[in-house]
Amino acid sequence: MVIVMQAGAADSEIETVIAAVEKAGFRPWVNPGVERKVIALLGAVDAEKAELVDHFSALPGVERVTLISEPYKLASRRTHPDSSQIQVGPASIGGKELAIIAGPCSVESKDQIFKAARAVKDAGANLLRGGAFKPRTSPYSFQGLGVSGLELLAEAGRMTGLPTVTEVLHPADLEAIAEHVDIIQIGARNMQNFRLLQEVGRVGKPVILKRNPGCRVQELLMASEYIMLEGNADVVLCERGITSFENATRYTLDLNAIPVIKRLSHLPVIADPSHAAGDWRYVAAIALGAVAAGADGVMVEVHPDPALALSDGPQSLRPDKFRRLMDSMTQVAIAVGRQVATPHEQL
Amino acid sequence: MVIVMQAGAADSEIETVIAAVEKAGFRPWVNPGVERKVIALLGAVDAEKAELVDHFSALPGVERVTLISEPYKLASRRTHPDSSQIQVGPASIGGKELAIIAGPCSVESKDQIFKAARAVKDAGANLLRGGAFKPRTSPYSFQGLGVSGLELLAEAGRMTGLPTVTEVLHPADLEAIAEHVDIIQIGARNMQNFRLLQEVGRVGKPVILKRNPGCRVQELLMASEYIMLEGNADVVLCERGITSFENATRYTLDLNAIPVIKRLSHLPVIADPSHAAGDWRYVAAIALGAVAAGADGVMVEVHPDPALALSDGPQSLRPDKFRRLMDSMTQVAIAVGRQVATPHEQL
Amino acid sequence: MVIVMQAGAADSEIETVIAAVEKAGFRPWVNPGVERKVIALLGAVDAEKAELVDHFSALPGVERVTLISEPYKLASRRTHPDSSQIQVGPASIGGKELAIIAGPCSVESKDQIFKAARAVKDAGANLLRGGAFKPRTSPYSFQGLGVSGLELLAEAGRMTGLPTVTEVLHPADLEAIAEHVDIIQIGARNMQNFRLLQEVGRVGKPVILKRNPGCRVQELLMASEYIMLEGNADVVLCERGITSFENATRYTLDLNAIPVIKRLSHLPVIADPSHAAGDWRYVAAIALGAVAAGADGVMVEVHPDPALALSDGPQSLRPDKFRRLMDSMTQVAIAVGRQVATPHEQL
Amino acid sequence: MVIVMQAGAADSEIETVIAAVEKAGFRPWVNPGVERKVIALLGAVDAEKAELVDHFSALPGVERVTLISEPYKLASRRTHPDSSQIQVGPASIGGKELAIIAGPCSVESKDQIFKAARAVKDAGANLLRGGAFKPRTSPYSFQGLGVSGLELLAEAGRMTGLPTVTEVLHPADLEAIAEHVDIIQIGARNMQNFRLLQEVGRVGKPVILKRNPGCRVQELLMASEYIMLEGNADVVLCERGITSFENATRYTLDLNAIPVIKRLSHLPVIADPSHAAGDWRYVAAIALGAVAAGADGVMVEVHPDPALALSDGPQSLRPDKFRRLMDSMTQVAIAVGRQVATPHEQL
Questions:
Q1: Chain C partners within 8 Å of D248 (Cβ)
Q2: Which residue from A35, C26, D192, D230 has the fewest beta carbons nearer than 10 Å?
Q3: Mutation site, C69, C138, C221, interface B, largest B CB count within 10 A
Q4: Which of A272, A279, A289, A292 is nearest to A333 (CA)?
Q5: For position A344, what pLDDT does the model report?
Q6: Which tens digits make up the pLDDT trace of A46-105?
Q7: Do A192 and D195 touch (CB under 8 A)?
Q8: Poorest-confidence range of A1-10, D216-225, D322-331?
Q9: Which residue from D245, D286, D335 is facing C334, i.e. has the nearest CB?
Q10: What is the interface size between B and D, counted as CB pairs within 8 Å?
Q11: How many angstroms separate the CA of residue D185 from the nearest CA in chain A?
C-alpha cells in the first residue's frame, strides 16, 4: 500500500501520516527526493485491507491511497511514478544524459588503469569502471588486485574527474570499497545473495545491481527491493544478457527487458553489451540498440590492449573502437531525445 | 569452396570456370547480381581438397579460391562479400532504406485490410503484410480467410502501391499465393519444414524466412540454404524472438542475432518486434533498438482496431501509435546512416 | 464441454445425445473404445453456456456434463479419464507393457536395416523404427532413401514381425508411407506444421507426435488436438529433449513433462533418449529415468555399426549395448509396475 | 596434471613426489582416501609441459602422469577414477546405498521439525534437512528462525539419529552452523558466491552444492573446485532443476546432467525433485526417474502439514505420500543395483 500526499503537503501532515502508519503496526518508507511525497507501508501484506485505505485516505494532506499488487513495493513505479535520477558527483543516471560507464574488466596495473581512464574520458564516458575483486568461474584464474586495485581505480578516477564503479563480492570488503569508490556494483552472480544486498543497502552509496543471467525481471526487481528496504533508494538496474540456447554469443541481451523495467519500475536501467555478447565485434551494435530502446546508459569494457587483458579480453573494445562507438551513440541518443554528457570533441 | 573471379572477368572466362567445376564433379552456383562474380561449388564437402584449390586458381580470370568452413555456403558472406539487396517493386530490402513492413496479423475483411493499408502507407511503411492462411496453435482459433484473403490483400496493395507479404503454410497454396502476393513468408513454425522451403525456393519470388523461436542462428542460415539451393537468392531473414525463461514478454528478441547474422551472411535481416514482445506497449522500443543495432527493416503488426482483431490483437499497434513509431524510427535510421523511404509528411 | 454417459448407456441413448448436440449447432466427437462413452462438443467455445449444461444433463443415459477449461479438449484427461491404449499389430502403447521402439535413424541399405531389425527384435524391442525421408538441418546431408527406404523397412518389419514406424515430411509422401508402415511419425520440426497434422489425422493410422524442442507441453497437446479433430484418436506423444543453455548434451530431456502430460492428458507418452542426449553414452541412463518416471515406452536409435551411420551415428547404440539396456529396462519396468513385452531370453 | 602412484607405493615415495612437485613450483593436492594415491599439481596451467611429465614419471613409485584438459582438476574423474563416497555419521553418500535427505523447507517450530523428523525417519530417510536461514526472493517473506532453528534441527537429528543438513547464506553464520549441523548446504543462488565457497571449504564438514538454475554442469564443477581447493573433498553435487521456457513446472529437472556428471566427475550427485517441479504432484515421478538414471540420492521436501508451511508448501509431500514414494524408490533402487538404507518395514 502506498499513500500519495498532495503536492505541497505540509511537513506536519507528512509526520501525522507517518505516525498513523506506525500506530497501525506498519513500517513507513518515505520516498526520497520527490516533490510529491509517497509513503509506502511495509509489513504483513495480508493486512492491506480496504478499511486501512479508508483510514489513511481521510488524513489531511493525503491525495490518494493505492494498493500495490506487485510483490515489489519500493521499486514499483506505482510507489514513485516519476523516473528516479541518481546523482554521482558530476554524473547523473536516469536523467536526459546517458550514463556511459567504461573501463577495463579488471584493474591490472597503474599503467593499464590510467591509460584506460584517460581513453574513456577522452571518448566521452562519464563514469569509470574497473574490477578489484573478481568473481571468476575458475579458481585458477586471475582473482583481481584486491585493495591495491581499489586504490589505483580511485587514483585514476581523481586524475580524470570520473566517478568510479567496482564490484563487491564479500561483506568484509565493503568498508574498503566504500572508502575508495563512488558506486558499488553487485555482480550478476550475487544478484540473489540477499545478505550481501542488505549489507550493501546499508552503506549509503549508489548501487548498480546486475541481473543474474538465469533470473527473470521480476526477480531482479525483488532483489533491488532488498537493497531499498535498508534505506538506499539509489539503485541502478543492469541488463547484461541472459542464458539461452543460442551459442553464437556468450549470453543473449534481453532487449525487451529495457521497456519492461521502465514500465514496472522507476529505477534507472542500463545495459552491458560486453558481457551480453562476449565478443567485441558485436558490442557496438548491441550498445546502440539498447540506447535506442530506452536504456539510461551502457557499461562497456574498454582495455588499452585487449590481447594482453587478464580477464574478458575478447569482449573488450580498444580505445579507438570505443571512440567510434561514442560517436554513433551520440547520434542515437539525440534521435531518441537523450544526450551524451561530454562529447569528446569538447574535452 | 568458392571461386572469386576478377572484377571484369570475361563471360567466356566465367563459362570456362563453370565447365571446369562441372567436369570436376561439382555443381556450380553462380552468385547473382554482383559485379565481381563468385562461383560456389556444391557437392561432397569431403572432396574440397587443396589440389582443387590449385586447379581452379590457375584458370584465367580467377582472382582467388576460398574454402568455406561454415556448413552454409550460399548464405555465407564469404561467398558474397557485399550485402545483398533485394528489390520488390518500388521497395528495396537490404539497402540504405529500411524496409518497413506493416499491416494486420490476418486479413479479416475488405474494410479492415483497406483501412490498415491506408494507415500504414500514410505513416510511411513501404510494404504491406497480412495473413490469409494462419498457423494457429489451437485448431479452434480463426484460421484465416484463405484465397479470398489473398485477393483482398492484393487489392489493398494495388490501391496503396505497396508490395505485399503473406505467409505460406502448405505447398498446395503456393500457386495462389505466388499469383497474388509479392513476397512469400515462411513462418517461424515452418522454418525447418525443409520440403516447403525447397518448394518456395522454386517459385522465384522473394522470401521472408522467420527464425523458429527454438532455433539457433546457424539453423536459420542452414534453412535459408535450402531455399537458395533451389536457385532463389532473394531471401530476407527475420528475427522474431526466441524462447527463454523470461515470462514478462511472450518471446525474447535476440538483439545479438542482428550483428551476428550481418557478420556471417550477406542476406538482409529484419526484426519483428510485435511477435517478440506479444504486447503492443513494448513494440516501439524494440523496433527502435533493432534498427539501431543494424536491422534492415522491421515487420510490425498494425490493426485499425486491435480490440476487435481476430488474431494477435494484444500485440498490434493502432495507426496513431504506428505513426509515432515511424517518426522515431526516421530519426534513429538517420542516426545510424540509414533512412526511411517515404516519410509520411511527404505523402 | 463433454457429456459423460452412464456406464451401459444404450446405443439409442447415445444417438439421441449426438443428435441433440448436432441440433444445438455443435460437432459431436465420440470418444472411441471405452466402456463409458464420453461425447465432446466441438465448436464455438463462447457458446459453452450453463443453459447447455442443463439441457444435455437432462437427456436419458447422461451421467454428467463438464465444461473443459483447457484449450485442448480431445487430448484432455477430462474428456477421457482412463489412459488411452493404442494397439498396433501385436504391440500396444499405453498399457502395462512398455513400447520399445528401436532401430536406426535412417534406413541405409537392405543389409543395414535387416541387421538392425534382427538385433532390436532379439533384444526385446516390440516396434521397429527407420527413417526414409529425413529432415536434415543441412541440405548437403543425406536425405534418406525415400520410397525404397519404406519398402526395405516394411520388409524388415515382416521378417521380424515388428510393426514399423517412419517419419512423414510432406503430404505428397503420405500415401506411400501409409501403404508400407504401421505408425506415422510427425517429427519435432513439423510439430506445428498444422496442415500436415490435419492430413496425417485423416489417414487413420496411429501417429507418434514428437515435441518440438522449443515448444511447451501445452503446445504439444494443442498439436495433438489438430490430429484428433480429424477423427484419429491414436496419438502417442514423444518427449525428445528441449532446447536449453546447457551444452554438455545436445538437448535437455524434460523429465518433468512425463508426469505433467500424464496428469493433463489420456494420451500415451514415450521418451526419445537418443535425440535428447545426442550422445550414446548417456542414452541408457536417460531411458531408465524416463521409464521410472512413468513413460509408456522409449524410442531408441540402434545401428549395427554406428561409426558408419549416415545420420545420428554418435547417438546410436550398438546392438550389444542396446541388449544390456533392455536388461536394465526390464528390471526398472517391473519396479514401477510395468513390464517389457518380450524379454530377449525367451526368443 | 595428475601423478598417479603405483598401488602400494611407499609413504616415502609419496613424500618424495610431493617434495618434487613443490620444488617445481606447484602446489600438490593429495587425493584423500583411496588406495592408489593420486597427486594433483595446482598452479599455472600454462606450465604443464611435456618435460614435467617426463620429470615426474621417472620418480620411484609413480605409475603414470596425466595432463588434465578440463578446467576443473580436483573434481575430475581423471584425478580420482573411483567414485567418491562420503561418510556422514551412519549415512554414506555415493556408495551402494542411496542418500535419502528429507524434511521441511524451513524449520518452523519444535513441534513441526520433530514431527517431520520422525515421519521421514520412519519412512526410511537417512538424513534430515531443514532450513534455518532462508534465501527468499522477497524480503517480505519468512526468512527462517536463524540460530534457534539450527538448535531445533540439531535436537531433531539427535532424537532420530539422523545426520542433519542446512543451508548457509552468510559467512558470519558458518560457525554456528558448523557447530549444530552435519552437512552444510550451498544453495542454488549462492553457487557462484565464490568467497562463500572458499570459506565453507575451510570448515571441514561435508558440503552439498546445489546447481544454480542458470548455470551449466561445467560451472557447477568449477564451483566445486573452489571448495575442494581449500582442502575439503567431501562435496556432493545436487541437480535441482534449471530454467527453461517450459512453464508447466517451476524449473526443468536436467535428467541428462546425472549421467554427464557421473562421467566427468567422481563426486556423488543427488537430485532435488521438489524444487525442480515446484508441485508435489510431480515429485515422486521425478525422484524415481533420477534414481533410475543413476543419482546417488534425492533431497525431498516433506512437511507434516504442507498447507500450513511458511515456505514451499505447494511442493512439499505429506508424510504418507513420502512413505509411498519410499516404497517405490526401494524397488527402483534394487532394479538399478542400489539399495535404500533402512526400509521402513524394519524400523
A1: 216-218, 256-257, 260
A2: A35
A3: C138
A4: A292
A5: 43
A6: 556 677 888 898 899 998 888 887 889 899 998 888 999 999 999 999 999 999 999 999
A7: no
A8: A1-10
A9: D335
A10: 6
A11: 14
Structural domain that includes position C300: 86-346
Same domain, residue pair B270 and B149: yes
Q: What is the pLDDT of residues B175-190, one digit of tens each?
A: 999 999 999 999 999 9
* A73 part of a folded domain: no
Between CA A85 and CA A296 the distance in angstroms is 10
Q: Are A206 and A33 in contact (CB under 8 A)?
A: no
Task: Note whether residue A71 is domain-resident.
Answer: no
Residue C80 lies inside a defined structural domain of this protein: no
Say yes or no: ipTM exceeds 0.85. Answer: yes
Tell whether D153 and D230 lie within a shared domain. yes
Tell me what the mean pLDDT of segment A24-48 comes to: 71
CA distance C210 to chain B (A): 14
Residue of D nearest to B245 (CA): D245
Residue A81 lies inside a defined structural domain of this protein: no
What's the CA dihedral at B73, B77, B79, B85 to 10 degrees?
110
Subunits touching B (CB < 8 Å, at least 3 pairs)? A, C, D
Residues of A in contact with D195 (CB under 8 A): 169-170
Query: pLDDT per residue over C129-145, tens digit each?
Result: 999 999 988 888 888 99
pTM: 0.91
Can you list the alpha helix ranges (DSSP code H) found in chain B?
A: 11-23, 50-57, 110-123, 147-160, 174-180, 194-201, 217-229, 257-264, 273-277, 280-292, 319-335
**Under an 8 A CB cutoff, do C242 and D246 touch?**
yes
Nearest to A216 among B245, B257, B335 (CB): B245
Please indicate, yes or no, whether residues B282 and B179 belong to a single structural domain of this protein.
yes
Question: How many domains, in total, are found in chain B?
Answer: 2
